[in-house]
């Protein structure tokens, strides 16, 4: 079924070229159904790339999904045109009295900063606190997952000896979790981060459980027992070339970067990377939307987030 996004959003053309059913606002206005309302808080500097990647993953859903794009007002984005933000993004003050079926909080390249040193940390805390009463289920990604699990449950992040960078093997820890429905016992997923959370800290918290992990990359997915909060510590939304773009960027800056692990065929950066995580990434987003948003969210949107 379709995702519903603004008619002129740059992602529209890219998704339609991939035969993904995109419903424009004009067509959606003539359908008499309640779409799922999903708010995407995009903290990544490459906003157009990130919004396209995540919209692609939200495309295979049981109902029409209306996506609203949210930016932080307390941070000035430098890698996207002001016109794009003004045309397609809203701010927290504009939506704080609304309710949403789902919220997605992306990663951000600020891992080596203490949470409290991030210039928009106060605003992000306000959004995460608001989500307790105005959002049915929230999906946190990479640094967004570290920030969310710290804010909601006090789980700290720890700096790694070197950047965790590449595509790693994972295992399903909770095979009967609906989130893992359809997953193979083992699957691959990309990571790109300098910090981590410890499995022991999550396991010691009575309201949290680990759903999937990796011998090399550590905890991949954790969730709250009430299914209101999901924490994905990798980047399942990444495209084939995303890690390559990050590697090329850092090499161009003169940084001493290791090759992304398990990514290039024969570790040859001149070779085209193979996307070996696409199917499981799609399944992860689809399962979250289906089992934890669509099938459990209240029909009256104003009740979303309320006990």
UniProtKB/TrEMBL annotation:
List of residues binding substrate: 163, 192, 249
Predominantly, its location class is: cytoplasm
Give the family per the record: Belongs to the MetA family.
Enumerate the NCBIfam families for this protein.
metA
The gene for this chain is metA
Q: What span is annotated as the signal peptide, if there is one? A: none
Q: Which reaction does it catalyse?
A: L-homoserine + acetyl-CoA = O-acetyl-L-homoserine + CoA
**Protein EC:** 2.3.1.31
- Which species does the entry assign this protein to? Parvibacter caecicola
Q: Which residues form the active site?
A: 142, 235, 237
> A Gene Ontology MF term for this entry?
homoserine O-succinyltransferase activity
Give the protein's biological function: Transfers an acetyl group from acetyl-CoA to L-homoserine, forming acetyl-L-homoserine.
UniProt keyword list: Acyltransferase, Amino-acid biosynthesis, Cytoplasm, Methionine biosynthesis, Transferase
Q: Which Pfam families match?
A: HTS
Q: Where is this site: Important for substrate specificity?
A: 192
Q: What is the lineage of its organism?
A: Bacteria, Bacillati, Actinomycetota, Coriobacteriia, Coriobacteriales
Q: Which domain of life is it from?
A: Bacteria
Query: Per its record, how is this protein called by name?
Result: Homoserine O-acetyltransferase
Could you state one GO cellular component term attached to this entry? cytoplasm
Q: In its UniProt record, which GO terms are filed under biological process?
A: L-methionine biosynthetic process from homoserine via O-succinyl-L-homoserine and cystathionine
The record places the site described as Important for acyl-CoA specificity at 111
Task: Report the Gene3D superfamilies cross-referenced here.
Answer: 3.40.50.880
Instruction: Look up keyword Amino-acid biosynthesis and say if it applies.
Output: yes
Its annotated compartments are: Cytoplasm
């Amino acid at each position: 079924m379709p995702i519903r996004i603004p008619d002129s959003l740059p992602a529209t053309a890219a998704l339609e070229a991939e035969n993904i059913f995109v419903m424009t606002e004009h067509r959606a206005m003539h359908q008499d159904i309640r779409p799922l309302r999903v708010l995407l808080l995009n903290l990544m500097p490459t906003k157009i790339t990130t919004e396209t990647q995540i919209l692609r993953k939200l495309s295979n859903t049981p109902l029409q999904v209306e996506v609203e794009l949210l930016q932080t007002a307390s941070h000035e984005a430098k890698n996207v045109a002001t016109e794009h933000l003004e045309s397609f993004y809203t701010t927290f003050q504009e939506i704080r009295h609304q309710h949403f079926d789902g919220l997605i909080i992306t990663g951000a390249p600020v891992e080596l900063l203490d949470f409290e040193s991030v210039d928009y940390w106060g605003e992000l805390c306000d959004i995460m606190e608001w989500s307790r009463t105005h959002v049915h289920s929230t999906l946190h990604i990479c640094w967004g997952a570290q920030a969310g699990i710290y804010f909601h449950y006090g789980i700290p992040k720890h700096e790694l000896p070197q950047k965790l960078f590449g595509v790693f093997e994972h295992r399903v820890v909770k095979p009967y979790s609906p989130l893992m429905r359809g997953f193979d016992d083992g699957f691959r997923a990309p990571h790109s981060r300098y910090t981590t959370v410890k499995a022991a800290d999550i396991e010691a918290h009575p309201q949290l459980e680990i759903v999937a992990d990796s011998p090399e990359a550590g905890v991949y997915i954790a969730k709250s027992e009430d299914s209101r909060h999901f924490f994905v510590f990798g980047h399942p939304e990444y495209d084939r070339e995303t890690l390559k773009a990050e590697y090329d960027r850092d090499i161009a800056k003169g940084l001493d970067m290791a090759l992304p692990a398990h990514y290039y065929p024969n570790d040859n950066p001149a070779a085209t990377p193979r996307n070996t995580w696409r199917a499981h990434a799609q399944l992860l987003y689809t399962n979250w939307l289906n089992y934890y948003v669509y099938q459990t969210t209240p029909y009256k949107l104003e009740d979303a987030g309320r006990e």
